[in-house]
Amino acid sequence: MHGDNADSGAPRRKRVTIMHVAELAGVSHQTVSRYLRFNGGLKPVTVDKVEKAIHDLDYRPDLIARSMRTRRTNRIAIVLPELTYFVPTPFRGAASAAHEAGYQIDVVSLEGDEARRRKRVLTLMDSERVEGILSFTPLGDMLSPLPVSPVPMQVMGQYDEKMRSTGAFADGAFAAEVVQHLADLGHRRFLHVAGNQDWASARNRRTVYLETVDRLGLESYGVVGGDWSVEAGYQAARDLPANSGVTAIVAANDLVAFGVIRGLQDRGVRVPDDVSVVGWDNEEIGRFLSPTLTTVELNLELIGRQAMLELIARVEDREPPSFEHQVMGRLIARGSSGPAPR
Amino acid sequence: MHGDNADSGAPRRKRVTIMHVAELAGVSHQTVSRYLRFNGGLKPVTVDKVEKAIHDLDYRPDLIARSMRTRRTNRIAIVLPELTYFVPTPFRGAASAAHEAGYQIDVVSLEGDEARRRKRVLTLMDSERVEGILSFTPLGDMLSPLPVSPVPMQVMGQYDEKMRSTGAFADGAFAAEVVQHLADLGHRRFLHVAGNQDWASARNRRTVYLETVDRLGLESYGVVGGDWSVEAGYQAARDLPANSGVTAIVAANDLVAFGVIRGLQDRGVRVPDDVSVVGWDNEEIGRFLSPTLTTVELNLELIGRQAMLELIARVEDREPPSFEHQVMGRLIARGSSGPAPR
DNA sequence: GCATGAATAGTGATCGTTCACTATCGGAGT
DNA sequence: ACTCCGATAGTGAACGATCACTATTCATGC
């Protein structure tokens, strides 16, 4: 094992405080404090003395005491859903953006019923004193009965009523591109194999799919599935009546799409000659399937990063940075989508 | 830089403290404190008064002030690698185990060179005062030049010199089972398509593979690959000389195995008639490939959970719980592995 | 009537910083 | 010679809890 220093009863040297540093350097504690926070207003001679003392004592400031006094914690909470299906990539983007900006990340998973979740969020804001909350899961109107929340919250994957993304991670927008792509190929009648509707991204893809089909004057044969699984895709393909007239299937992700294709092939339906299939996520296997898989690639890292940067801007009461020109994703047309059969 | 929120301006009501509660309840602050920590030693009448005051004021204790005084933080850091390939499942298990035990999770990613990483860990221990560190990435002898570390650290995926897992996540152990399974089927000459050797799990699988082949008196044709990708598997299969004599391929994970199978099939090699292939992770697609994929299923959630529980036990200076009888994983034999051709 | 002690409640110090003031020192301007 | 001012450094209080003591209450036994 690594450091099983069992003897926690070790002769634990007492904590080095700013006072010890001050004493050794022959200055006041306040001078050391000034040094710690900004390197200005001190004579070079003083700076040297303080630096030497800090180094000799191996001093590191106690962030808890600092927070105690400054009322700031430099801590942002990332709220995850029940942790059953959590996508690491946007998390990563968000976490590293926060670290770069000098914030620490607290990870919290919200479990239990509405009341417990609400209580947890309140505790986060008040007791743990996080300065911002980035949620990967919808929080509903959890805080609505509150006097205006003092802690900025950012929820990934929210849309406004016009289907424009608000916040970030509103990746569903690309569902419109997918449908458009298929429509351009002459398809008129669609099926959507959705992901687990507990996830915002699944709901968003579904909603935008329906909205776009409608807007373009096309037809949706229906929405099936609902758990992101290969199995769900397979079943959806098996269960599709031969006379459904569906020629294009929009799958919630690449795994589902893979299942759909297998299911179709097992029935003797050709892809894309008879039916086109589009996935989502651009997973590597898509390039190795036959046919190769048309899919949507999202820059999830960037999406997570952006959400965090927006949140931090709000925490610091600044204008959020603009991401207008950032490319959040793209459609990758490959072999599984082709012209509609006439 | 951040922090220039000169004054957040909002009409932020002043914080409710234990003093306000005490005043409203008509007791001393110490009585309130006693109530907060344990519900004993107080007269029911007093308890009622305090509870009412807490509720009326919507009081929540300031955990920072508490930590300041108690010298405890109830905070455990989870250290992640550079976040380029991080597996969420064990993280989830670890995080929820910690939450259940009343600890908060701090997520830290270690970046930069050895010196920066070392400094970061020291900061964690001293400045942020985490009580334990669970690392998903090897930390080397980062702390060796330290006076015995006061903070327990647990590193996932370490083996002792006998290839027994120490700590947790030492999932590589199942590589022995995989090789045994193939040996039982008559295979004698193996190839390993490894994962990215930056990851402990990849190194462990590789090491245990080699050790087992050796121990059973078999032959390893070699170890290739090294990035967990479908592509790597595909290339490995394409590059394998026809006369290599290899009849069994152990892939680092299911994606790699998928690539291997595609590569073999594209060359006209039959799986499993000519060559057997085994994957790792029991991803859902394995059941839908043809042939279906023999693989290893790991209970990653449990593995993460166990690592965290061990760490917490050490933090609290208790005997770590025993996981002797827990099943960490199993081999799932399916269509892609069969008897060696004679 | 008083000592005893358990149960309950209160007082003041303390954790390690930073904040709000105040103090000192020199040099420049009047 | 005096004030004034900027640059630099110091003093004591404050952040909000808990800890270590001390004080009060009240039932009990003699």
Describe the structure.
- The structure is a homodimer of 342-residue chains.
- The first copy, chain A, has 342 residues and is of the alpha/beta class.
- Chain A is built from eleven helices and twelve strands.
- Chain A has helices spanning 18-25, 29-37, 44-57, 63-70, 88-100, 114-126, 174-184, 200-215, 230-239, 254-266, 300-315; strands spanning 75-80, 104-109, 132-135, 153-155, 158-159, 165-166, 189-194, 219-225, 248-251, 276-278, 295-298, 329-332.
- A four-stranded parallel beta sheet of chain A has the order 2-1-3-4, with helices on one face. In chain A, strands 8-7-9-10 form a four-stranded parallel beta sheet, with helices on both faces. Chain A has a two-stranded antiparallel sheet with strand order 5-6.
- In chain A, helix 7 runs parallel beside helix 8 (200-215).
- The longest helix of chain A is centred in the middle third of the chain and has 16 residues, at 200-215.
- Chain A is elongated and about 90 Å long.
- In chain A, 44% of the residues are buried.
- Residues 1-12 and 160-169 of chain A have low confidence and may be disordered.
- Strand 2 of chain A pairs antiparallel with strand 2 (104-109) of chain B.
- The structure holds a DNA duplex (30 and 30 nucleotides).
